[in-house]
């Protein structure tokens, strides 16, 4: 693992804002002012993640709080990660929101009103800021059949399970599973090229 | 292991499971099992992290949405239940601690204690602290002005008010007439709201003073009793 100092070179915080890497490191030292600032800078993005996955404002608000509790308690782990600070934060938020979604779907069995909200256009600022490496996954997705790439994107953005994806795409669950796994293997192969 | 082996015996293995975890398609049980492996197996954790990094650019599709203010308030209540509504050290509310200090030391200590908390978001104005005392009086308060909160926090250190009398807080700016900030409620701690205009004067270097007034405060709008405590505001 690389020391975190080198990873901060790729930090994507907009000019003029304190660097998110440094804020996370300060939060790991339980610096509450840094935590407030980190919240101010990143909560809109992470709320966007929770809202998109959970599709319910009050639940997303609850999830956002839990996400920041995790960030507060686990910030020291960031030092051992190779992810960019924003990717690290988004991963925490996405994983938490998806966990919540799975718990909810499990308890309230059979809600298949799989949120048919149109995906918002890609956030151009974030795309531009993501720079060269970001192109890789998008390029590799383009190598997949359109509907399969769509299934991968849908799963990632909305946190849909195999069952929900199968329903959305009108294919049997096992077909969806095979599709998606083949797609992932192709992606891995493409990403490594 | 078994999750992938059962379904896809000769393809992908752990790397595929890591991808499925990151993508989010697994069931609750499968996710929980994978999460346990992330904790226990560094090699598996690295596979997951690689996928997180590879797929992360897709998260550009998440449009930022400003969360409601209640989210941060709730978060602070969860994480810092003892800290009150703002980042304030616990010592702030320890009466015995403040009583044990000489007046001169109070300001220095208030500074030392509050300083680490003053490393805050770049606010237009920052917080100000004052130790209020006077040579011929035992009435002592510590005052903390927080522009973001729009209020002055007062910590009563010593000096009782006589029956039928009140302490009133004033802003004194040079030769201008004092501006009343209101009667200080009895108790170990008190808060008084600060209007923005008055706050600006505080930030510009005004003093705080406490006068002894009839119950309910000065009837004239200007101090009528003796000033029993005063002090300069120091920037944190």
From TrEMBL, chain B:
Alphabetic keyword roster: Membrane, Transmembrane, Transmembrane helix
Transmembrane segments: 96-119
Pfam families, A to Z: RskA_C
One term under GO cellular component: plasma membrane
Alphabetized GO MF terms: sigma factor antagonist activity
Domain Anti-sigma K factor RskA C-terminal: 102-227
UniProt xrefs under InterPro entries: Anti-sigma-K/W_factor, RskA_C
Example GO biological process: regulation of translation
Name of the protein: Anti-sigma factor
Species name: Kumtagia ephedrae
Organism lineage: Bacteria, Pseudomonadati, Pseudomonadota, Alphaproteobacteria, Hyphomicrobiales
């Amino acid at each position: 693992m690389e020391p975190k100092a080198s990873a901060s070179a790729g930090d994507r915080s907009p000019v003029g804002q304190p660097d998110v890497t440094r804020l996370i490191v300060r939060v790991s030292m339980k610096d509450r002012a840094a935590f407030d600032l980190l919240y101010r800078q990143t909560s809109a993005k992470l709320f966007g993640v929770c809202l998109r996955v959970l599709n319910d404002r009050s639940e997303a608000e609850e999830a956002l709080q839990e996400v920041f509790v995790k960030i507060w308690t686990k910030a020291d782990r960031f030092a051992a990660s190779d992810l960019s600070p924003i990717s690290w934060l988004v991963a925490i938020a996405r994983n938490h929101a998806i966990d919540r979604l799975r718990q909810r779907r499990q308890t309230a069995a059979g809600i298949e009103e799989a949120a048919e909200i149109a995906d918002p256009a890609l956030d151009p600022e974030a795309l531009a800021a993501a720079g060269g490496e970001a192109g890789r996954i998008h390029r590799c997705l383009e190598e997949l059949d359109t509907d399969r790439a769509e299934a991968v994107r849908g799963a990632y953005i909305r946190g849909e399970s195999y069952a929900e994806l199968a329903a959305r795409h009108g294919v049997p669950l096992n077909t969806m599973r095979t599709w998606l796994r083949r797609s992932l293997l192709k992606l891995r192969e493409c990403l490594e090229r | 292991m078994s999750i992938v082996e059962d379904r896809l015996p000769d393809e992908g293995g752990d790397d595929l499971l890591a991808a499925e975890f990151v993508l989010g398609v697994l069931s609750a049980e499968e996710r929980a099992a994978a999460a346990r492996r992330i904790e226990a197996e560094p090699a598996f954790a690295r596979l997951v992290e690689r996928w997180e990094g590879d797929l992360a650019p897709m998260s550009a599709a998440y449009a930022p949405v400003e969360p409601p203010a209640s989210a941060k308030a709730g978060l602070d209540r969860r994480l810092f239940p003892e800290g009150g509504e703002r980042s304030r050290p616990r010592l702030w509310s320890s009466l015995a601690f403040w009583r044990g200090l000489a007046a001169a030391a109070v300001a220095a200590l208030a500074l030392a204690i509050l300083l680490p908390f003053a490393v805050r978001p770049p606010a237009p104005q920052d917080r100000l602290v004052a130790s209020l005392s006077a040579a011929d009086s035992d009435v002592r308060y510590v005052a903390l002005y927080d522009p973001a909160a729009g209020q002055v926090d007062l910590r009563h250190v010593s000096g009782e008010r006589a029956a039928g009398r009140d302490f009133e807080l004033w802003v004194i700016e040079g030769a201008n007439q004092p501006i009343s900030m209101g009667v200080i409620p009895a108790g170990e701690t008190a808060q008084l709201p600060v209007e923005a205009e008055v706050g600006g004067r505080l930030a510009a270097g005004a003093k705080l003073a406490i006068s002894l007034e009839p119950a309910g405060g000065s009837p004239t709008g200007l101090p009528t009793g003796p000033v029993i405590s005063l002090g300069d505001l120091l920037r944190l």
